[in-house]
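Model it.
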Amino acid sequence: KKRFDMDRTLRYDIPPEMIGHKISEFLRSKGFSNQNLTDLKKMDHSVMIGGRWEYMTYRLQEGDTLEIRIRETDVSQKIPPVELPFPVVYEDEDITVVDKPAHMPIHPSMKNYENTLGNAAAYYYREQGKAFIYRCVNRLDKDTTGLTILAKHMVSCSILYDAMTEREIHREYIAIVEGEDLADEGTVDLPLGRKENSAIERMVDYENGEKAVTHYKVLGRRNGLALLLLKLETGRTHQIRVHMKAIGH
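Modeled.
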C-alpha cells in the first residue's frame, strides 16, 4: 500500500530576546497552537537543535538553530478524490490558493458528496503523493467564485485561523446589484440569523441574529445596475445577499 506524506521543515534562527526561553514558548510566539505542540511531541525527530533531538522544555541558547519537522501521514478519509476544476493561483510549502469556481460547494455534504472543492483538493494532492487533510481557511458560498486559502499542514492552519480570528486577513468582493440610487459608499450593520424552518437561508434578525457588518463602495453605474466593491467585517452565511436585499438592492 502506497504511503502518503505531507512533509515540511521549518528552520528558525533564535533572536537575542528569545535566548533562555523554552522551545515551546518560542514556538507559541511564532503562532504554533497548544495542539500543534502536542502533535509535534508525537512525531519522531520533530524538534531538533543543531541536528539533535530536544524536548520542548529545552531552553534556547545563543547560536542555536531550531528545526521543526512536520510530517503528516493522515488523510481526510471521508472526502473522496475526484478530478474536478482546481485552478491554483498561488502555492508554496505552506498554503495553496485556489480560484474556486462558481456553483462548487466548499465542503462535501449529503447532497454534494463528490462535486466540491474538497474533492478537487483531495485529487490534486493524491496525484502528488501527498497526505491530504482538508483545511479550508476561508469559506465561500456555493455560487460565489473567488480566492480560497487551503492550509497544507497543521501549523500553517493554526496561524491562518488565528489571522482570520484577529481579522488580519481582509476579503474583498465584487458584486452587481439592481438600482442606481445607492449612495456612493456606505455601511450596512444588520444582525443575521437563520430563517425559520431552514438550515440554509438567512434573514435580518434583530432579536437573535449575530452581528454582521458590510462596507460597500460604488465602482460604476449603468443600465439600472451598480457595480460594488464590498468589504466584510464579519463573514456570516449569505451576508452580502441579505444585506443588499435589506437596503432595497
